[in-house]
Every structure is written in structure tokens, then in C-alpha cells.
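S2.1 Query sequence (DUF1400 domain-containing protein)
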Amino acid sequence: MLQKMPFVPVCLLSVALLAQTPAAAQLEAFQTSEPGQSPRINLLAQTTNFSDLVLTLQDLPNSFEAMPPTDLEQLRQDLTQEDFKVASVFAFMDANNFELVMGITTQIQSAAEQQDFDRTLNQPEVLQALLTEGLGQTEIKRQQPLTNLNNIGNSVGGVSLDVDLEGVPARLDIIAFRRDVVGAFVFVMYLNEETPVIPAPEVARKLDARVIKMLNTGAN
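Output C-alpha cells follow.
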């Protein structure tokens, strides 16, 4: 059943994050930010190929398999909208342990967009409302802040959700972070009460390291 779990409804929340919709519900989400970060927007936006900002099978335990290329391209198209351009996307599944790993990045086009992005990550009630809103009709049993987010991006926020997938209890951990001119979203879904084969913070740090390497290369 989890092998057929669609990625798109989960990841459409990324579009909502940039929309900055105010939230009335008082929800919790862990967040942290580093002050004084100044992105090199103009130079990097013109010289960097952000489509290569993906993790590969070499970054994951041997039990994972990559999402088929045709499905991945369809996912990219489904996620891309007029006001949200997907720079890169990757997705993997461990069928034996019923774990899904996914990440997408988007290029932050201006200093104003960076400020809006960071503002969302620094407003816990807005961040978590948008994260849960992106799940559509998925039943959320419990939600709590996602901790252990140190050393990820310049700004970061995350939430852990207990969800019901057609009678299958699962946990969805979501991390959103910004590193310079890149906004990134990481999703890890696994069976509830189980330990993930690779946890979301580790996936986020691997992706963040890939972003740093590419940004440093593009700036040279």
C-alpha cells in the first residue's frame, strides 16, 4: 500500500510556504535562524545550475531504490506552478521498511523573497499550519516540533506528523530550510513507532552540504 503512496499531495505544501498565508490556528513547530546572512543572489542566480541539487542512491542506505525517471519528471511538472519553480527534485523508497525519502529545492529570486521565506520559518504557527494544510485530506493524528535541526541551512523549521494512510499508521517528518539563495524541503515518511532507516535531519544535512558545495563552486 505504501508503495503506491503519492508524493505530490505531501509536497504541494512547498508552494504554500512561499505564499505567506496567515494562520489562525495556534500550532507548534521548531525553528531556528542565523542572523546576518546575506545571499549572493544576482551572481549565483545567473551562473549556477540548480537542477543538480539532488541526493543520489550513494547518499542513502543500500535498501533504497530511486523513483523512476518518468515519475520523477511528472512530479517536477506537478509541483511547478507559475509562482513556484522547482529547481530540483529527488525521491527514493525502501520497500522493505516502507520508508519514503524526498526532497525538492527552489531558487530564491530576490532579497525580498528570502526575507519572506525566513519570516515563515520564524513564525511557528504559520509554518506548521502551512505544513499541515499541504497534506489535504490526510488525517493527522498528532503533530509535534521536529528537533535536532542544528547545522542545517541559514534558517530552518520542521514538524513531525502522525498520519493515517488509509488505515496504515505512519509518521511524516518535514524539514524546510534556506541556504543562501536556495530554499529546500525534505520529507521522510515511515511506519509509526518505527525508527527511520535514515532520519529527516540527516537527509537535510546531506542536501545542505550539496547546496553549500554547489554555491561555493558557482561563486568561484
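Residues 1-43 have pLDDT under 50 and may be disordered. The domain at 39-218 is CATH 3.40.1000 (Protein Transport Mog1p; Chain A).
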